[in-house]
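To assess whether ligand presence alters the predicted conformation, the chain was also submitted together with magnesium ion. Input:
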Amino acid sequence: MAVTIIVGAQWGDEGKGKIVDLLSAEVDVVARYQGGPNAGHTVVVEEEEIVLHQVPSGILHPHTQCMIGNGVVIDPVVLMDEIGFLEKKGITVQGRLFISQRAHLIMPYHKLLDATRERHYGSRKIGTTGRGIGPAYVDKYDRCGIRIVDLLDRTTLKEKLLTIIESKNKVLQRIYDSEAMDAEKIANDYVEFDRRIDSYVKDVSVLINRAVEAGKRVLIEGAQGTMLDIDFGTYPYVTSSNPIAGGACSGLGLGPTKINRVLGIAKAYTTRVGMGPFPTEFDEAFSEHIRKLGGEYGATTGRPRRCGWLDMVVLRMAVMVNGLTDLAITKLDVLDSLDEIKICTGYRTGGRELEHYPAELDLQEQVQPIYETHPGWNRSTQNARTFADLPANAQSYLKRIEELAGVPLSIISVGSRRNQTIIL
Ligand code: GDP
Ligand code: IMO
Ligand code: MG
């Protein structure tokens, strides 16, 4: 379909990178709309594993145009490193990657404030990726952010930076009892980005709308996931943007009437990194077992991911708030050796059942998942290429997920490689 949004249906790391890369073979444009280098999207091409943080995962297909929308927060240091890394691998980025002039920048003080605030919060910390995401979005909404366009005007940039850093230094010193930053040095370092970034800067909203009008196939790549959404996630244990599908419209300047398909990505179980409620979380021993089987370590920070059973309350929320048209289930193969597999169909609390994910944090922490137990299949699914190749118990597990989700499954992933995929 002409314009497809890919969104994470859980707490991130659902395998969006693999699916975006896979679908990129047949699209013309791949665009990111929110988040920043907190994302770690893994693509496996033959023997090689490539982790992308800011560049859309479609970049590995030489025919695609890649765009970074206004809703993304960009760390220019990380971005330039990422471009350098890709170019070194022989992947042409220049002329194929376009960055919105309206996107906001992550500056060194955002990273410092992110880390300082987490330290200050102690046991109440969020467990952020430390990439400066929250403070960068705060400045955007506080209307004191630096945008990509500002990089192109050295004099104004320097003036703006000196003023902002002076006020950030007051916060750091007086509130957090921390060291001040060298404003001159930061300003001088960042004026250097004008020449390096100039050729990538475009009006992405115009470009993407033109592409849609010309009938090009567009894939819009979400980062993070529905449960990390600033509005619908497990607030305050969320990220500072809108990963849900609606974010794609504001984060790219593309109207909702242009969207044809919203594909949700979910693992066949659940993981999350960082702090916050996780109703179906395993005990530590079983979490460790699944972590080993699924290689569940953060692609950005290397932190061990917390693991749990598939949660249909979460998935139904994702279907609803994203308006999902279909679902991809990834990492089915990770469950291959289990005797029994559970699906959480609802929550119970104080003698009543909850149909929807609650907003109250204490309730999110208290709810008791209601499980149904499915028999495992004890056979490798990694070589399955059609639904019929899957063991009968795996087929029933997937059919049950489809039934509970209320939207069709369209893709099943049984390994990290491109060909380890079943298209339904
Ligand atoms: P993303 O952030 O949603 O793109 O996901 P990540 O890249 O952070 O994490 C997903 C991990 O699972 C990566 O290491 C992928 O290579 C891997 N992966 C994706 N799909 C599958 C699958 O079907 N089976 C297995 N075993 N691994 C997968
Ligand atoms: P991808 O795109 C999983 C989590 C962090 C933390 C919370 C806030 O790879 O799925 P932030 O640095 O954004 O302020 O951290 O969000 N988080 C992710 N978890 N996958 C991600 O991205 C994430 N990006 C942020 O662990 O709990
Ligand atoms: Mg990830």
